[in-house]
Write a structure and sequence with these properties.
8 helices, alpha/beta, single chain, disordered N terminus
């Protein structure tokens, strides 16, 4: 596959991480997209990653949707390829509702694909909170996200953080009709029942559908080259 800037227009990617992660998790993917001339933004959602000092019980799905909508606004981004991993699918769906005019394509990577009035908890069980009743710790070490390389595990372990409960329990507020003007892709990486269900729904809704089962859930960490090729296919002429 030839992905030089001469063969394809320069695109703008906004990569949205999943629960317990941060913008840091795209570290291996960013240079692969930038190397062929694309712009890449990897915002971290409030309360996670380097924004952990803002963690609070009041953070909900709307907070995170606004995080990304504000990135599009303040960076003045247009024709964006908006990518959501896992919980990030909840976020990017809300962003499309708020800022669809700024988007060109949406990519769901092993992600939740919410319907109006449904929260993440309606699709998958939410892990138990800590004693405070609102901090949801990661479901396990990096291996819980199918990461097996020792160097990756050492890198990820101190960076995974607690997720505010309301991000899992607040329902998505979506229009009755989906924005069919946007290109939409679903990349299936695991056979977790909730992601398989989302993938089947994506196919029914006419999404472009791809599989990367060799990656496991955290494809951006375990198979960055293969994942980047799939993302580049989205903008290939």
């Amino acid at each position: 596959m030839n992905n030089t800037p001469n063969q394809q227009e320069k695109a703008t990617f906004v990569l949205v991480h999943g629960a317990w992660h941060g913008g840091w998790c795209w570290k291996k993917v960013v240079p692969l997209l930038e190397a062929v001339g694309h712009r890449v933004f990897t915002p971290t959602l409030t309360g996670l990653g380097e924004r952990v000092h803002l963690l609070s019980s009041q953070i909900d799905l709307n907070t995170h949707v606004q995080d990304i909508a504000a990135t599009l606004d303040y960076e003045d981004l247009h024709n964006v390829v908006l990518v959501g991993h896992s919980y990030g699918g909840m976020v990017i769906t809300g962003v499309a509702e708020k800022a669809g005019a700024r988007l060109a394509h949406m990519v769901y990577i092993d992600a939740f694909l919410p319907e109006n009035g449904k929260a993440l908890k309606d699709y998958a069980p939410v892990p138990p909170t800590k004693e405070d009743g609102w901090r949801v710790p990661p479901p396990g070490p990096p291996s819980a996200f199918d990461v097996t390389d020792e160097r990756d595990i050492a890198w990820m372990t101190p960076r995974l953080g607690d997720q505010p409960l309301k991000t899992f329990t607040q329902p998505a507020q979506l229009s009755a009709e989906r924005n069919t003007a946007l290109g939409q892709t679903f990349i299936q990486c695991t056979q977790a029942p909730f992601f398989m269900e989302a993938g089947e729904r994506a196919k029914k809704w006419g999404f472009r559908y791809q599989e990367l089962f060799s990656a496991g859930h955290d494809a951006m960490v375990t198979k960055p080259v293969e994942l980047s090729k799939m993302l580049l296919e989205v903008v290939k002429k």
